Amino acid sequence: MADLTLFSFQAGTTVLHHLDIRVKTVLVCMLSMALFTAGFSACLACFLVVYPLMCAIGMPMYRLIIRLKGFILLLVLMAATRAVTVPGEPILSVSGIEITRQGLAQGSLVGVRFFLVMVIGLLFAATTRPAALKSAAQWFLAPVPLVPEKRAAIMISLCLKFFPLILSRAGQTADAVNARCGSFRKNPVRQIRFLTLPLLKKTVISADHLCLAMDARCYTEHRTDPAFESSGRERLFLGAGTGLCIAMAILSRSSFWMIFW
Amino acid sequence: MPRPILEIDHLTHAFFNGTGIHDICARIFPGEFILLAGPNGSGKTTLIRHLNALVRPTSGEIRLHGRSVTKDLIVTRKTIGMVFQDADTQIVADTVADEVAFGLENLNTPRARIHEKVDQTLAYMNLIHLKDRNPSTLSGGEKRRLAIAGILVMDPEIIVLDEPFANLDHPASRDLVEIICRLNREGQTIIMATHEVEEVITHASRMLIMDNQGRLVKDGPPRELLGNLEYFGIREPCFSRMGYSAPPWQT
């Protein structure tokens, strides 16, 4: 369990750690939307803002790239696919497969966008306590009719808590099966019987124990309302974030057309 | 004689396969340190889950201050704090401080009071330096202390611990014994279910022994029961087996 996923909270004292979760959520949504229409120059502007924040929370880019190498490989494959499938001006031809300038540009751009969205998500996850996330979910869902926001918030919180636990249990079960040569049997039915079913059983039992433990501590939906932490710089961040999104939109409009020219 | 906090009155819980607990009667008094011992499958966990009204009996009743524990579940669960065997599945929050605050939030305690009580409890349990840590990164002993802090913060009158030494190394077990003894000295009533009595037998004021059939077969001071434990499927403490008095760290 000590080996937590990359997307987990890391305690710290930076301004991002103390920023109101609601502002952080709005900023992440705005930046993600801005990135999906961003061109190269807009992505560069976003990167120049995000990079110092990454350094500030103690997560240098090289470490991130090492840990996300699987995801980056996926992005490279996605870019390569675009490079050979998008029609346009060919820059290289190998065995009848043409790599086009437009394809390469579009593929790279999509890869860069996804990478930046991932980095922003990671920045958000690393500086946000899951309890704060639960509070934000409760706050955002409160005006939605027919949605029991407190129940939904606790469900989100439990899912976030249980995900690493289930992964850990899956690893343990797989190890136990492989220690008895289970990996040599490729039959999918056997894999379901000896890996998936035990994992499912353990997960259900754990969930049952958790329910009892919550009941034992008087769990109810009518709980103390969440408190939102404030750094006092929420307006500044919201203003700067909006400014960045507008700048990215302006830069994107010009660079978008440049790709096709 | 003081009035009992808890009265277990002919409690029976039968499972479909015939196992369970049968006709348990006992009275728990304030300030007692009760060791509930018995072999695996004797029904210790089933019995202590009844104390907290987490399960309903087939017959019989448990009364807390003269009222059935099922009458007011909030009062019952606030008064009788329960520490489960597997700390990993008991811990619900993502930081140590949030985990301790969980019970108070359920009781609708004002936020300022929650902060105050959480800090006090974490300091008492020597966990304050781990306040912002993810509980899954704690050691076994720290997780157990966190689980106790999570119920201690609710000011229970009785703390019930289910196999608290399971999966703990020796230093962690000793730390835990020290904490439990300190709580008991400060007036907390302790009920501890365990099949390994070595660590705590000399601290307990009373011992209840259950047999394989789920029956309460012995109830008395531990010193009087020493020497006969193996008859009930409980490992005799080393000092007793060798004919010595209790070792100094236990006394």
Account of the protein in words:
The complex is a heterodimer of chains A (261) and B (251). With 261 residues, chain A is mainly alpha-helical. Chain A folds into two domains: 1-130 and 228-261, no CATH class; 149-220, no CATH class. Chain A is 71% helix and 3% strand. Chain A is built from ten helices and two strands; from the N terminus they run αααααββααααα. In chain A, strands 1-2 form a two-stranded antiparallel ribbon. In chain A, helix 2 (21-35) packs antiparallel against helix 6 (101-127) and helix 7 (130-141) runs antiparallel to helix 8. By secondary structure, chain B is an alpha/beta fold. In chain B, 32% of the residues lie in helices and 22% in strands. Chain B is globular, with a radius of gyration of 18 Å. The two termini of chain B are 27 Å apart. At the A-B interface, helix 8 and helix 9 of A face helix 2, helix 3 and helix 4 of B.
Q: Secondary-structure blueprint of this entry?
A:
The complex is a heterodimer of chains A (261) and B (251).
Chain A: H1 15-18, H2 21-35, H3 40-56, H4 61-67, H5 69-85, E1 90-94, E2 97-100, H6 101-127, H7 130-141, H8 149-178, H9 188-216, H10 234-260
Chain B: E1 6-14, E2 20-28, E3 33-37, H1 44-51, E4 59-64, E5 67-68, H2 73-79, E6 80-83, H3 87-90, H4 96-106, H5 111-124, H6 140-152, E7 158-162, H7 170-185, E8 189-194, E9 206-210, E10 216-220, H8 222-225, H9 238-241
Parallel strand pairs in B: 3-8, 3-9, 6-7, 7-8
Antiparallel strand pairs in B: 1-2, 1-4, 4-5, 9-10
